Amino acid sequence: MTRESVAAIILAAGSSTRLGSAKQLIRLGSETLLERSVRVANEAGLEPVYGVVSGDMPPDACGNRMVRVFNAEAHEGMASSIRAGLRAAESENSRLSGVVILACDQPAVTTKHLRELARGGNRVVGSAYAQRKGVPAYFPASTFSGLLALHGDVGAREFLKSAETIDLPGGELDIDTPEDLERALRMYST
Questions:
Q1: What is the number of domains present in the chain?
Q2: Residue 41 per-residue DSSP state
Q3: Nearest to 33 by CA among 6, 51, 56, 59
Q4: pTM value?
Q5: DSSP conformational letter for 155
Q6: Which helix H or strand E contains 117, and what residues bound it?
Q7: What is the reported pLDDT for 128?
Q8: Spatial contact of 45 and 2, defined as CB atoms under 8 Å apart
Q9: Strands 5-12 vs 49-53: parallel, antiparallel or unpaired
Q10: Domain limits for position 117
Q11: Could you tell me which residues are beta bridge partners of residue 49?
Q12: CA distance 122 to 7
């Protein structure tokens, strides 16, 4: 990359223990949750799109529309995926102005929402839903060293406490349980 860019880091290395099967590969309509996340990030103009996955993800998942990042430390939790994605993004992009971090299991995320987040400039900007702040969220380059220091399964929660937010209607639905999946299928399978 020669110009400044905002990359996407899709967190998709979780083990989906509460759901009982790999949520990344669950279909909503004609695409898997991971394919949907990659498509929405690409349509939002985020580039490149990094998909952080575990070793049991099929090699052809999403084809060449995402840069596949293997997270050997996925058992640690979300922080390890953030670190893996950010390391990959930094190593390939000398002019990265920021990243949008998103989970693959939030079907309410839209291209428009990701575009709005990516305009964060030098501020952390999160998504607001269900009276809380969360991902997807934009993190400027000035936060990268702090993100690389994260550990455990808490993600970037501390960074989001004082962040500005953009409303994400329906953002509270993330697919963690069979009940969440049933709700998502009713709402988003067309």
A1: 1
A2: H
A3: 51
A4: 0.92
A5: T
A6: helix 111-118
A7: 97
A8: no
A9: parallel
A10: 5-188
A11: 8
A12: 15
| CATH code (residue 55) | 3.90.550.10
pLDDT of residue 4: 78
Angle at 181 between CA 177 and CA 183, to 5 degrees: 115
The series of mean pLDDT values per 10 residues for the chain, 190 residues long, is 79 73 81 93 96 80 82 91 96 87 96 98 97 96 96 88 96 89 82
The helix or strand, by DSSP H or E, that contains position 87, with its residue range, turns out to be helix 78-92
d(CA 71, CA 12): 10
- List Cα–Cα distances, 72 to 8, 14, 42, 149, in angstroms: 20, 11, 25, 17
- Residue 87, pLDDT score: 96
- What distance in Å separates the CA atoms of residue 137 and residue 132, rounded to the nearest whole number? 12
- Residue 190: predicted pLDDT: 61
Q: Which residue has tokens 């590969």?
A: 25
Phi, psi for 36 (deg, rounded to 5):
-65, -45
Beta carbons of 42 and 1 less than 8 angstroms apart: no
Relative orientation angle of helices 33-43 and 111-118, to the nearest 10 degrees: 50
- Decide the pairing of beta strands 96-103 and 5-12: parallel
- Strand 132-140 relative to strand 67-70, pairing: unpaired
Predicted confidence at residue 124, as pLDDT, reads: 98
End-to-end CA distance of the chain: 37
Tokens describing residue 47: 């580039």
| Cα(163)–Cα(165) distance, integer angstroms | 6
Phi/psi for 102 (5° steps) reads -140, 155
Place of tokens 């060293």: 145
